[in-house]
Amino acid sequence: MSRLTDLIADLKAKDPKLGADLDREFKVLSSRLPFGLNFERHRPEAVELPLRPIRKGDKVRVLPPRGSTKKGDQRLWQVKAIRKNKNLAEIELTGGYEESEAQSVSLENLVVVADFRDTIFPGLISTGKEERAAHRKPFHTVINGENYHALKALTFTHRGAIDLIYIDPPYNSGAKDWKYNNNYVESDDLYRHSKWLAFMERRLNIAKELLDPENSVLILAIDEKEYLRLGLLLEQMFPEAKIEMVTSVVNPRGRHRPGRFARSEEYIYFVMFGESVVGKELDPDFEGGSAVPWRTLRRSDASSARGTAKGGPAQFYPIYVDATGNIKEIGDPLPHGAPRNSAPEISGCEAVFPIRDNGLEMNWGLTAPALKSLLRKGYVRVGRHRPSKSQKWEISYLTSGKIEDIESGRATIVGRNPDGSVKAEYIEDKLKTPTSTWVRPSHNAETGGTLLLNQLIPNRKFPFPKSLYAVEDAIRLFIGEKKDATVLDFFSGSGTTAHAVMRLNHHDGGVRQCISITNNEVSPEEQKSLRQKGLRPGDFEWEKLGICNYITKPRVKAAITGKTPDGQAILADYKFTDKFPMSEGFEENAEFFTLTYEAKDAVNHNLAFSRIAPLLWMRAGARGKRINKLPDGGWAVSDTYGLLAEVDKATPFVRALREVEELRIAYIVTDDDRRFQAIARRLPEDVEPVRLYESYLTNFSFANGE
Length: 706
Fold this sequence. Notes:
By secondary structure, the protein is an alpha+beta fold. Helices cover 26% and strands 24% of the residues.
């Protein structure tokens, strides 16, 4: 019906009375909604492409004058001719208006628009890389582009191959936190919720194509403004999946909202496909390799003070410790009221009693006979010497539960301390099933998100970044055992998901890779300031402040190198699961790309191929060297794939493929299906044949708004 509203608006401009009458009847009908999740499938978004050169036949908009903050002409025009010598374009109004209109406009005052009816020919241009793991690991990729178009391109490279998608989509707060058709969606927009649902549905439909149907998970973080609608949308779109929701406290103090509850939590949906299930997580009290914990022998509660009924006289006795910290003797209990100096003395030893620092006499946690039994087994140890304190030595023991862990084999004795006490460690981690409510200090969005991001890229602001450790915990439940998993985040923002994947790899030696997609939007406040300075999207000074260039790429680089954008070592440490200095960085690789929009009929085949070369490389695993241009000899072989550009050279090509151990794909360029099949039969069994049409860009084309 939203398409009808667009048509009615057009009609009102041409025939106000007829348009008003039709609008009135439409509103009556639209109020009669059936039960269930109902929303308008709004016209797919038209996207402005400020970096795209103007070409004949393009759809364009006319920009407002430089320095103006007013909204420009939203009508679509078509470029009929380009006069390069005068830097002008001849444009004509399109879109079914009754009266045609034409004008000449400077090329710099036009912006290309990818309309929902247009066919897109995507490509990728590399804008830099960080490489610290050479050929040992695949590359993480960061793509600067409109996420719907980037997702469509990934249907060639990763259809059915993604193990996990984590997204933190716009929360639709009404505070200009996202755009639809190049316009910020504000709180007074009557179609705010249906636009958001239509926006999400289109992207989730593509996400479904990318996820492995046999075993994968889609994770979505959201807050209270859309979580109910999102839940219904997910159930409607993915009836075959198992869907769970977790409540996660991200702001323990709560966000102040006058007259309302201070909001402290968000919600995380887990949509599990095929065999995917919620994994278990470490019980922090029983981690493999961690030392078996000891308990202080002196009782701590006031009801266990000497002279009270609890413990009685049997648990106040001297423990004789020599100067080297060894227990030489365990004495007999002293009767109530007997002074401590009435205990026998042993030469060269101090008599240690259970006494608080304030002088209050307590009881030991065990009777003397029980302590002697544990001492013989090495289950009692002497700690720090504190000459100035009332209790001169700290003394600890192993409780019955920890002794049972050792004697049952869950923990093992790995050595002895100088005093004869055991050194014991747990052999394996003890795992537990996570609950559906997460209240964890590591998930605090301020400390694990905002403050951590500022340590990586100082003084660069990004609104509400997720806690690194919260994302890490969520994805670990599903890919903790998949060390070669492929992860996708198509609302990557500050790059937290890629960072979390690198953390997992560091912890267990994994080779997981993350594909991050984000646009290069500038915040509304910065946009106004930049426009007043005469800048526009596409200008260098504008683009350098966009999310991808200013936040995502620098954050990923900083995480890998351990250095801030200014080249300074990051002076902070990672916490919680895997603790180490951030300045160490990660042994990882990352490459950064910008999504391009190519001409339908590219004359230069080498240029056309160079644009799709990164996509071929990504499909083959984004590992090792890339074939960036058409090979002069008709074929080329890289670390994980080969390219046969001239089918007459098939014999040496196939021979070369057999020499590469990690080869995954052979791309064969031909329009002849019979020749493709004949060459495919000659390939090694474990090599996938993929046909490319000779018009390279058509292999990846798609209709915008399908």
